[in-house]
Design brief:
By secondary structure, this protein is mostly helical. It contains ten helices and two strands, in the order βαααααααααβα.
Length: about 220
């Protein structure tokens, strides 16, 4: 167990091993997601009985004292969301920031849609990562294949199709779990702290899942 005070400071590289994006990859995924949502709200049928929360929030902010049954209100709200997504994607594409955080700090008007898209992308990845039977589970890191596909070497791109990503030992949290659980009677006395700068809960989920599968901790 951890008998001396120990602090782990985690950046995006820690989550990369569990299939989540690095800061730069997150920016690229947000651009893609922003374009998807922009196109959706440009083409959605106004009479369709669908009123997502982001549209509800926009309506309350910009069109108070209206109800969402009004087609003109819907049209204005949808147009605003599509415009915000377009603005965010366009600016990100021009700036190409290394991380999304500083960019949103420098563009206050885009913070709301930016935070929404961060959550959207991370939750999509989480759903895919923990889906039963998916290639993307806690034992496999899909980023290994992506790295090969993005390589300039043709042999790496060919290998990406057949490589067994489950053979990589990317689940580094297991080493911490081993230390935490070394003395079951004193689990809560471990002198360990985690500081994470990540948006995902891969660390929390790994710790919870592993420890809850050890009978002594039931």
């Amino acid at each position: 167990m951890f008998t001396q005070k120990t602090t782990f400071i985690l950046g995006a590289g820690a989550s990369w091993h569990y299939g989540y994006p690095t800061g730069e990859d997150l920016v690229n995924l947000i651009i893609i997601k922003a374009r998807e949502i922009e196109n959706f709200f440009k083409g959605v049928e106004l009479q369709w009985p669908f009123w997502p929360k982001i549209a509800d929030d926009e309506q309350k902010a910009h069109f108070p004292n209206t109800n969402n049954a009004d087609a003109l209100v819907k049209q204005a709200v949808f147009k605003k969301i599509a415009s915000d997504c377009n603005d965010l994607a366009k600016r990100l594409d021009h700036v190409k920031p290394l991380v999304i955080d500083f960019f949103l700090g420098q563009n206050p008007n885009l913070q709301k849609i930016g935070k929404f898209l961060i959550a959207h992308v991370i939750l999509d990845l989480e759903l895919e990562h923990y889906h039963p039977g998916s290639e993307r589970d806690t034992r496999k890191n899909i980023n290994r294949r992506k790295a090969l596909l993005q390589s300039p070497k043709m042999e790496d791109q060919r290998d990406a199709r057949d490589i067994d990503i489950g053979r990589y030992g990317d689940a580094w949290v297991r080493f911490i779990i081993h230390r935490l659980a070394a003395n079951p009677e004193r689990l809560l006395e471990n002198e360990v702290t985690f500081v994470t700068f990540n948006y995902d809960v891969s660390l929390e989920r790994s710790l919870f899942t592993a420890l809850s599968n050890i009978e002594r901790f039931n």
